[in-house]
Amino acid sequence: MNELLTQTTLASYYLILGVLALFGAHRLVLLAIYYRTRHLRPVAPPAPAEWPRVTVQLPLYNELYVATRLIDAVCALDYPADRLEIQVLDDSTDETREIVARHVERLRARGVDIVHLHRVDRKGYKAGALAAGVRRASGSLLAVFDADFVPRPDFLKRTVPHFADPEIGMVQACWEHLNRDYSLLTRIQAIFLDAHFLVEHAARNRSGRFFNFNGTAGLWRLEAIRDAGGWQHDTLTEDLDLSYRAQLAGWRFHFLADVKVPAELPVEVNAFKRQQYRWAKGSIQTARKLLPRLLRARIPWRAKTEAVVHLTNNMAYLLMIGLSLLIFPAMLLRIGTDPRLMLWIDLPLFLAATVSVLVYYSASQYLRGVRGFACLRRLPVVMGLGIGLAVNNSRAVLAGFRRSVGTFERTPKYRIEGATDGWMDKRYRVARDLSAWIEGALALYFIGCFAVALWLQMWPSMPFLYLFLTGYCYMFGLAIIPAVRTARREPIAET
User: What are the residues whose beta carbons fall under 8 Å from the beta carbon of 44, sequence distance 6 or more?
Assistant: First the structure.
């Protein structure tokens, strides 16, 4: 019986590590594709003789601190005033509604073509608001900006010319970060997003693979939205869903790495986890919805394979939980194992699963212009935070397999732009959920594992145990410390 348990534990451990190694190798494949296609940047045609009419849509829901900042930035867009319409799609249930209504009235009195569209039922959440706006839009092109974004005046002048090609259905700009250096958490988030945009998007788009609109900082052709079936709200990632339906319908997209739109990163860990939960759950819902259609589609095998990996890669978090539970027992069971076995089996798998991630994220920072030690010094924390998200995102993946769509819970924004800006006393705080306590339990587990490994002098195991230890401790600590600091104050719940 003990022998069977040993074999089952080691087999499960190697199987999980092997699949995670494949996910890690996929990052290197994307990186190789990026460097092979880096010369294929989309080139914008000259400015059109007559600029097309553009409708800018601003979906809002209880954005007390940032709504007017977004509206003012959009009103400052450098575009012919008679060719620009602005829709404030406001589903707010708090005083944001009145603030926005007054602000829009002042702008309308100054001659700005802006309308405040308020819904009382919030049906379909963001997708429902966008669909309602589409029905009233007068533009042939539709730009979308979430509340935490601050587009620069030249956004439309740099994106609209790409629609001279009648096959282009969507143009996505690159995200920048207003508060990248606010804290370690925002710096790590920025690195995650840098890799997503600068490597993933660029590699997929330039090699003819599918990539997705990110819900904001992009411009759609109205005809493409309608041809793909419109905004639908049967997933929590309506942007990913519409992107794949549009590309399956034959529309092509452009990613513009050099057009950057600043945005605010979540500064509070529970808000960050909520965002990650929604993205992870929505990707699995989109996979359930579209993978059968995608596998039947007559598209190149490389595009089909990449799409399958793209839509299912959050399942790696479930494997990470399995690895978290098995890594230390597997290490104990292999004490006394022939070192050559570990050299030829364990080391390649660990390198594929871990070093590939380090190379991937360091490359994204290099593309940002970061050089030398500065390019590498935060990468262990990046890996640790990725591990620390495993509990939260695994719950999201499991929820994504259920038929219930769930509630679209937006990420609160606090207008954090500088190092001295605070958020502790602001509204829309996100409460801790069960994942924080599971992360705390795993943090205690790895403290014990690390102590035993020190006692047994398991030196080769220490770096890997350290990643798990820091990841879970960091996530749990971020969730608990703000709660301790505000324990004497009445919590301000989200409206």
Answer: 158, 161, 162
